[in-house]
Amino acid sequence: MDLGIKGKKALVCASSKGLGLGCARALAEAGVDLVMNARGAEALETAAAAIRAEFGVEVITVAADITTETGRAAVLEVAQGVDILVNNAGGPPPGLWSDWEREDFIRALDANMLTPIALIKALVPEMMARGWGRVVNITSQSVKAPIPALGLSNAARTGLTGYVAGTSRQVAGKGVTINNLLPGIHATDRATSLDKGVAEAQGISMEEAHARRCAGIPAGRYGTADEFGAACAFLCSQHAGFIVGQNILLDGGGVNATL
Ligand code: NAP
């Protein structure tokens, strides 16, 4: 399918690895020029070079922490005028509901709620002025079904979801859609580190931790970054202009719910 976005420009945050990289690759395959971002310059440059070589699109890189004001300023300096924004950042650490202090919540809110909101506020007005734009926020299945050890994520991402629900309906009339993609477990470094935590806490091997997690996923496996990226690219396509303010689970059926 021709996604109809060849020649558009996208900012994909936190995209040197994992789900962000999957989104960057899928957009590049559709002919979209990219601004890619991550904190570590080495992995970012490697990922960008591979995308340039494989898809022939322009890629600008900005090595910066997207959750900080200075990091966002550096990214926005080269990302003004993008047609597509993919919001992403690392997830908050696991823990126990009773242990988190105000500062832990502020960090999680900054990273997973206030950063995407700041980027939406910075970039969506120009999209509206041009009459076309796409925003996809990478959130989590924890928005639909809370994950006990990830209370910081449950809280921050649900806050973003509420903001998107209201905002998406105010900008849709100008041709700009905002939607959220909710990953269930995907085979990335993040999943490996979560499995490692489970393995250590329960005194089991990594293989056992992986197998136990797969047992709770009807598809019987972890998702891939390529699958995730393809869904993101579709939401950013010309064909997705009537999808507004939605929360789309990509979880292999893991969340057991009718709606
Ligand atoms: P990942 O494999 O660990 O990759 C994270 C990417 O984000 C890397 O490129 C990393 O590069 C970059 N990054 C992290 N923090 C950043 C920051 N502050 N500023 C700029 N770049 C940053 O993670 P993932 O699995 O793709 O997860 C992406 C998001 O989806 C996370 O928020 C995660 O919690 C959420 N999620 C993932 C899963 C899953 O199963 N994988 C499930 C539900 C939700 P640097 O470290 O060099 O910055």
Condensed summary:
The chain has 8 helices and 7 strands, in the order E-H-E-H-E-H-E-H-E-H-E-H-H-H-E.
What ligands are attached or bound here? NADP nicotinamide-adenine-dinucleotide phosphate
- Compressed to H and E, one letter per element, the order equals EHEHEHEHEHEHHHE
What fraction of the residues are assigned to beta strands by DSSP?
Answer: 5-15%
* Mean pLDDT metric: 97
Low-confidence stretches: none
What does this 3D model show about the protein?
This protein has 259 residues and is α/β, with parallel strands linked by helices. The protein is 47% helix and 14% strand. A 7-stranded parallel beta sheet has the order 3-2-1-4-5-6-7, sandwiched between helices. The two termini are 28 Å apart. Residues 14-20, 37-40, 43, 65-67, 88-91, 138, 140, 183, 185-186, 188-191 line the site of NADP nicotinamide-adenine-dinucleotide phosphate. NADP nicotinamide-adenine-dinucleotide phosphate binds next to helix 1, strand 2 and helix 6.
Overview features:
single chain; alpha/beta; seven-stranded parallel sheet
Helix-strand layout with pairing:
Elements (H helix, E strand, L loop, with lengths): L8 E4 L5 H12 L3 E6 L2 H15 L3 E5 L5 H11 L4 E4 L14 H29 L2 E6 L12 H21 L4 E8 L5 H14 L3 H10 L9 H11 L11 E4 L9
Parallel strand pairs: 1-2, 1-4, 2-3, 4-5, 5-6, 6-7
The site of NADP nicotinamide-adenine-dinucleotide phosphate (NAP) has 28 residues, from α1, β2 and α6.
